[in-house]
Amino acid sequence: MEDLSLSTLIWLRMVRFVQNSNQLSHDHLRRFGLTLAQFEALAHIRNFAPITQTDLARGLTVTGGGISRMLTRLEAEGLISRQQDWKTKHISLTEEGAELLERAYPSQLEQQASLFDEVLDEAEKTQLHALMKKLYENSLARRGDDEQP
Question: Hey, is 78 helix, strand or coil?
Fold first, then answer.
């Protein structure tokens, strides 16, 4: 294997951390009957409701077909409702969906925070946050993206 630069090694470590974190989240959210993608969709709907399917797909960076299949399942499970307004469907959480998210959300935040809290002190977390913000903002600038972190 060729020698890799420190920057490449950092990137690889970040990718592996995110993959592992996502798997831990998936396993954790299973107790609520949710996948990580469903959890993210419900949280996004809660934050921006009522939201269109197109805006939800854009916010989650999912294809139109992918979001459509997920929403069909969430609707069948009674977690979301879709209201047709002329040509546009607006998506909101049902009472059942809001209650599920109310239970799952704090638990998921605690699970994710523990990945950092168990190994980093406050100064390290502050430094890591600043570094990740700097990297994120640079990646947005390189894409020419107007999104704010």
Answer: coil
Q: Which helix (H) or strand (E) holds 82?
A: strand 80-85
Phi-psi region of 108 (alpha: psi -120 to 50; beta: other; left: phi over 0): alpha
Whether 80 and 72 have beta carbons less than 8 Å apart is answered as no
What does 96-119 look like in DSSP terms, one character per residue?
HHHHHHHHHHHHHHHHHHHHHHTT
In what order do the strands lie in the sheet containing 80-85? 51-52, 88-93, 80-85
For residue 88, give the 3-state DSSP assignment: strand
Q: Is 110 exposed, middle or buried (0-12, 13-18, 19+ CB in 10 A)?
A: exposed
pLDDT tens digits for the chain (149 residues)?
Answer: 578 999 999 999 999 999 999 999 999 999 999 999 999 999 999 999 999 988 998 889 887 788 889 999 999 999 999 988 888 889 999 999 999 999 999 999 999 999 999 999 999 999 999 999 999 999 999 988 655 54
**14 secondary structure, DSSP code:** H
